[in-house]
Every structure is written in structure tokens, then in C-alpha cells.
């Protein structure tokens, strides 16, 4: 077992998470390994068990005693920096829509999330958004005729269970494929070429999937959970890729080999696509 983090950063294992993730990624590629080992066994057993009771119990279920053995680990996507642009009360530029937690882009995290800030963010902003959203509900008059402006959404039951089953299976496959594209081409270490490849493949996958839906008799007004989520995933994936392509520097969790350094002259605010007005202040 060879300790490698000091080779990458003087802060070693305590370097920021993007540095550690890139270092692990580099080691995995160099050594053609599937995981690296995280060893905490030099700490007193009681200390480990009192600090990490859940992880210790979980690992033990798989026969791994973390007080004596190293833990196999790989980097994983575990936070989305960005999201629906929100003000300090969770308000958005859609009047009456409030967001809190990981879905929100409050500016709290900058280019890299600090440890445990996401849970704090979810709690603080949920609390902040509560009163204004209740006030909004109490003061707004709902125009019930507004829903007649659009065609009524159709539940796709009329397609029959056979066709619906096929659509669901295909959508699940497409979802996995999109996840693979994002992991392989838009992951820890990026490049312009790989991002462009992702952009192209995502576009093709989306067109292909949409065409499949309509071949199966899907109609524009049909609404189903899997289809809605798939469209949202495509939308998010495309936004992440186009934002990454627009940033010609590396900053926080965005690292590209074509622009590997932090460059103040290329600094951009959190990228918002499409250009949207400031969130309402009332
Ligand atoms: C591996 C991992 C480790 C992490 N470690 C930490 C950590 O140590 N410290 C820390 O602070 N943060 C950590 N995070 C991040 C933190 O867990 C999340 O940011 C936080 O849980 C987000 O909370 P949320 O309520 O905003 O969203 P979520 O917890 O994602 O909740 C969203 C909910 O909405 C539901 N939902 C989705 N779509 C629909 C729909 N269409 N209709 C109805 N419901 C829907 C989902 O089922 C889910 O229950 C970690 C995340 C991961 C993945």
C-alpha cells in the first residue's frame, strides 16, 4: 500500500475535495485500478466508532472492519453546484416558485461545495422560503381559467400496457446511457473535445428517444413521470455541458485540461442559461 496524496498536494488527504477527487482519478487511470484504499485504522478504535458509527456499521455488513482494514473508495458525483437561480428567500424569477436545497443556486457554494454546507443550506433556505411562500399563497388570487389556455395534459394510458412497458424500458436504458455519457465525458477531468463529444451524443440520444416516443404513438400533450424526468435530465445535462464549454479556465469542481488554471481574466459569474432577469425582490 502506497500513500499518494502527498505527491499531489501539500495538504495531502485534507486538500479540497476536487483536488483529492482528481488525484484519485489520476491514480486509477495510471494503475488501471477500480478503486483506491482509504485507511483510518491508525486511529484509536473507540474514536473511529464514535465519529463514524454509520459508515462503520455499513462496512461491517460487507465484512469490512474499518478499525482494522482499509476501505475501497472511488470518487462519485455527490452534489450539483448550480441549479435554479434563487434569491436569499429562495425566490426565483417565476413568481410564487420557491426553491431550497440542492435544486437551488443560491450562490452559497461558489465553485466548490464546502463540507456539510449542503445540509445546512437545505435547512436554512427551506426556513427562509417558508414565510414568503405562505404569504404569496395567501395574497395571490388564483385565476382558475388560466389552465384553459393550454391543451389539457393527457395520461398516456390510452397507449396500452404493452406500449407503455416498452416506452418505460427504453426510457430507463436511455437514462443509464445519459448517466454514462455524463460520467465518461463531463466528469472529474474534462476537455473541450470530450465536452463537445458529450454535447453531440446527448443531442443525438435525445432526438432518438423523442422519435421513439412518437413512433410508439406518444402525443405532445402526454405526461408521464418517466418521460418528464427524462426530459428534465436532458435539459440539466445540456446546461451543465454548455456551461462547462463556456468557461475557459478551471475553477473549483470544473477542471479542464485545455484551461487547467484559475484565471481571473476568464472568471465568469455562475453561468446562467438562458439569460434570465433578476429574481423578483418582493
Ligand atoms: C454520497 C453523498 C454524500 C453526501 N455527503 C454529504 C455530507 O457529508 N454533508 C452534506 O452536507 N451533504 C452531503 N451530501 C449532499 C446532501 O446529501 C444533499 O445535498 C442533500 O441531501 C439535498 O437535500 P434536498 O432535500 O435538497 O434534496 P434531496 O435529498 O435530493 O430530496 C429531493 C426529494 O425530492 C423527491 N423528488 C424528486 N423528484 C420528484 C417529483 N417529481 N415529485 C415528487 N418528489 C420528487 C426525491 O425523491 C427526494 O426525496 C452528500 C450527497 C451524496 C450523494
List the helices and strands and how they pair.
Layout: H1 5-8, H2 17-31, E1 36-38, H3 45-51, H4 53-61, E2 71-73, E3 84-85, E4 104-105, H5 117-139, H6 161-185, H7 192-215, H8 225-246
Parallel strand pairs: 3-4
Antiparallel strand pairs: 1-2
The protein binds flavin-adenine dinucleotide.
Family: Belongs to the FAD-dependent oxidoreductase 2 family. NadB subfamily.
Protein name: L-aspartate oxidase
Catalytic activity: L-aspartate + O2 = iminosuccinate + H2O2
Search tags:
single chain; 282 residues; mainly alpha; Flavocytochrome C3, Chain A, domain 1; Methane Monooxygenase Hydroxylase, Chain G, domain 1; two-stranded antiparallel ribbon; two-stranded parallel ribbon; 8 helices; globular; binds flavin-adenine dinucleotide; pyridine nucleotide biosynthesis
What does it look like?
- The protein has 282 residues and is mainly alpha-helical.
- It folds into three domains: 5-73, Flavocytochrome C3, Chain A, domain 1, CATH 3.90.700.10; 80-137 and 267-282, no CATH class; 153-246, Up-down Bundle (Methane Monooxygenase Hydroxylase, Chain G, domain 1), CATH 1.20.58.100.
- Helices cover 46% and strands 4% of the residues.
- It is built from eight helices and four strands, in the order H-H-E-H-H-E-E-E-H-H-H-H.
- The protein has helices at residues 5-8, 17-31, 45-51, 53-61, 117-139, 161-185, 192-215, 225-246, and strands at residues 36-38, 71-73, 84-85, 104-105.
- The strands form two sheets. The protein has a two-stranded antiparallel ribbon. Strands 3-4 form a two-stranded parallel ribbon.
- It is globular.
- The structure holds flavin-adenine dinucleotide.
- Flavin-adenine dinucleotide is lined by residues 76, 78-79, 101-103, 116-119, 122.
Amino acid at each position: 500500500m502506497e500513500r499518494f496524496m502527498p505527491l499531489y498536494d501539500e495538504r495531502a488527504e485534507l486538500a479540497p475535495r476536487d483536488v483529492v477527487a482528481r488525484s484519485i482519478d489520476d491514480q486509477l487511470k495510471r494503475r488501471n485500478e477500480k478503486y483506491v484504499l482509504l485507511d483510518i485504522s491508525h486511529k484509536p478504535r473507540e474514536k473511529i466508532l464514535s465519529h463514524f458509527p454509520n459508515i462503520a456499521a455499513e462496512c461491517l455488513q460487507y465484512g469490512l472492519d474499518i478499525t482494522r482494514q482499509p476501505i475501497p473508495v472511488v470518487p462519485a458525483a455527490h452534489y450539483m453546484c448550480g441549479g435554479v437561480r434563487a434569491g436569499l428567500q429562495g425566490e426565483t424569477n417565476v413568481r410564487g416558485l420557491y426553491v431550497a436545497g440542492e435544486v437551488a443556486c443560491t450562490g452559497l457554494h461558489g465553485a466548490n461545495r464546502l463540507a456539510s454546507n449542503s445540509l445546512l443550506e437545505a435547512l436554512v433556505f427551506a426556513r427562509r422560503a417558508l414565510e414568503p411562500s405562505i404569504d404569496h399563497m395567501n395574497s395571490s388570487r388564483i385565476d382558475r381559467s388560466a389552465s384553459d389556455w393550454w391543451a389539457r395534459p393527457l395520461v398516456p394510458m390510452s397507449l396500452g400496457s404493452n406500449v407503455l412497458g416498452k416506452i418505460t424500458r427504453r426510457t430507463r436504458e436511455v437514462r443509464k446511457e445519459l448517466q454514462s455519457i455524463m460520467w465518461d465525458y463531463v466528469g472529474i477531468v474534462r476537455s473541450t473535445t470530450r465536452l463537445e463529444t458529450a454535447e453531440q451524443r446527448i443531442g443525438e440520444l435525445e432526438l432518438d428517444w423523442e422519435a421513439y416516443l412518437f413512433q410508439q404513438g406518444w402525443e405532445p400533450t402526454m405526461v408521464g413521470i418517466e418521460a418528464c424526468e427524462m426530459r428534465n435530465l436532458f435539459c440539466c445535462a445540456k446546461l451543465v455541458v454548455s456551461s462547462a464549454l463556456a468557461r475557459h479556465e478551471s475553477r473549483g469542481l470544473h477542471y479542464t485540461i485545455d484551461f487547467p488554471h484559475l484565471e481571473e481574466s476568464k472568471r465568469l459569474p455562475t453561468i446562467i442559461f438562458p439569460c434570465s432577469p433578476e429574481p423578483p425582490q418582493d
